[in-house]
Description:
Blueprint: E1 15-17, E2 29-34, H1 45-58, E3 66-70, H2 74-86, E4 89-95, H3 100-108, E5 112-116, H4 121-134, E6 139-140, H5 148-155, H6 157-164, E7 171-175, H7 180-192, E8 197-203, E9 231-235, H8 237-251, H9 257-272, E10 277-282
Parallel strand pairs: 2-10, 3-4, 3-6, 4-5, 7-8, 7-10, 8-9
Antiparallel strand pairs: 1-2
Amino acid sequence: MEYKTLMDFVGNTPLVKLQRMVNTKTNSVVLAKLEGNNPAGSVKDRPAINMIKQAELRGDIAPGDTLIEATSGNTGIALAMAAAMMGYKMKLIMPNNMSMERKASMAAYGAELIEVTKEDGMEGARDLADRMAANGEGVVLDQFANPDNPLAHYHSTGPEIWHDTEGTVTHFVSAMGTTGTIMGTSMYLKEQSADVQIVGVQPADGAAIPGIRRWPAEYMPKIYESTRVDRTIDMSQNLAEETMRRLAVEEGIFGGVSSGGSVAAALQVANEVENAVIVCIICDRGDRYLSTGVYNP
């Protein structure tokens, strides 16, 4: 008998119908893909495994090497899990205002956590990762420019959505941070049907939603191609957090703030379009955010 490993349980996450939050007047359906069911608890498990696996196959890295990555949280946790499973050392760089749960999760997997200031932000974290690699401290996988990030979703997330909706999906809604999820999934779904609409969610001015970014031009992820996104929706902090809390109370789905933003955008589309089948991504689990107080009444 051949037993399965942890890697075999990344992907094939549930796609569930929202039952109470959708306006039934348009007869549209909103389906939520529960990426918190991945082993390390987020959609980032997919690219984390694929970036390491493909780098190994190319001979760029080998077990025992040190990997370096700038992260706001979920990619770091996923990479820490993948590194532990595949035999690598992991150094993660992140802004110091990320939640305690995220930091503790990375450390639990044995990763070394290096913090930059809130003011330096993710841009500063990315710059530090590059300097460390230039000093020979390890190899940067670079989720922002690495094609193995979106290709993970091209080979898994997209096909799963197409299969589970039996090809009826009309809209795909995803938060945009690193943009790997929306790029790879768009690539696959558009190959199946050019009519599928891809909707990206970005933060409104002043919003600070973990996992959703509006990058300065010089830091725009190199994997991002604007032609793969048909529409972008600016998401307010309040609406993302309110929708996140409603998801838990009304649907029993315990997700993070970016998930609330994705669902809020999906509900907006559902109110505008009749007979649509809208798939949105629940990026991670809500227990990663409890210490921030966003779930407090």
